[in-house]
Amino acid sequence: MIRSLNIKNFAIIDEVSLAFEGGLTIITGETGAGKSILLGALNLILGGRVDSKMFFNQDDKCVIEAEFDISDYDLYGFFEEEDLDFDQHVIIRREILPSGKSRAFINDTPVNLKALQHLSSQLIDIHEQFDTLSIQTENFQRNALDALARHKDKIKTYETEFKEYVQAVKSLEELRSASDKQEAEQEYRQFLFDELEALHLTEGIQNMMESELAILENAELIKKNLNAAYQHLSESDNSIFQQLRDVNLLLQAVSKFNDGIGGLSERLEQVQYEIEDIAVSLEQLADKTEFDPEKTNIFQTKLDEIYRLLKKHKLQNSDQLMSMRNQLELQLNGEGDVGEMLAKLEKKIVELLAHLKSTGAEISKGRKSAALVLESKVNEMLQQLNMPNALLKVHLYESEQPGPHGLEQISYLFSANKGSVPAEIRTVASGGELSRLALSIQSLVASSIPLPTMVFDEIDSGVSGAVSLKVGNILRTLSDKHQVIVITHSPQIAAKANKHYHVYKTDIGTQTKTYVRELSVDERIASIAIMLSTDPPTKAALENARELMEIS
User: Which helix (H) or strand (E) element contains residue 493?
Assistant: First the structure.
């Protein structure tokens, strides 16, 4: 509830402070005294549009500040979402600079206008002529039905089930997306693997093939040189082998004269054997060395593919390519199939949806019954409030899919005149009719749900004194559980106040200023008597005022 309202430099208000309590607060005053200015100030707290021309002093800033007790409201989530320190006592301040720029604060922390509107709309509900009221919103209309249906536990169960259902649907979408992504990744991995697998890589294959290719590409030169070397060693007339044999014969001829020469001869004979063996090997190599164009092309093609993949993957050798191939194979074999997971999740969603619809059907049944009660009692109350032809109809439209609050959309349709087809409230109700309709609905559900501070302006518009008395009684009953503030010209309504403020204006020099003061009991009697008769009031009016106030 609102605890205080401080207004500085706004319209014809220099500075005004009001303190509020629970119950019914009445604000009265002559037309033009400034009662509507108080509503304008509250609208700024609600995040309303700024008009810099509405300054009392054009050189100073306008400040509207309101303190609220929010202990009865579940608003912790809002403060957490907006990263604000939570406190059961909240101060909302709106500052408008002479330039027209405005700033908003919640507990001295700057906030944007959206955050201000979100919070304040849950704290104050202003019912004035042609204003957009909470009863026009599906949120209020749904909460009213649920309050009358008294199925709070079912609502909580449904909301929990709906969150689980939505999360499961979201998980399914994410899993399908992941599955598509995995499939694409698997296809790419498979492509890379197939490229490498086609090479039939083995350890050291690159070095081996490079060596073999070098031999193949130089086969003619190698064969020529091997044959020439073989000739020099063994086959020519003056071959090295022949020369060594001739030398050995010379040594053997004189070996009997010197034992050392015999040893050298034996060593030379071993060299002869080695040279002969080398010559045989050279001959064999020369015979095996042949230029093979087909084999050369195969090796070159494979090496070109190895070089291409090395460059593609930024690797150094074929052994690293083989390691990559092995890793890809592990990934291809190790990736889990999400098909089974998708099937399980789809089955779970079917089950969740069935539970959700079952719970929603129970809620729908309760809402349909509550709608009949609401229509009956509100229409009866409207007749008492001088709206004999008014008709409220509650329509429940089944949604194609379960929503966050149930299986249907809710709409209140209203007709104030006989023969008129009920239509959406905002399109057919005048300000006074809207206020009385809101009062009827809110008084009916007041004991079941926490309501914001309700501010009524001109709720007595166009009604008789007898009807005003009924309105006053309803307001007083409503204020037993909720804070109600009423701006009125009706003495019957004013008489029901727990606290009574009087708004008046005074000319001071060249300026007109608005003031607000709380009336004492005697001042209230006098004020109500004046509203009943003249100023000064008659004795009969004073007695009538006491009677209305139930003061003996």
Answer: helix 491-494
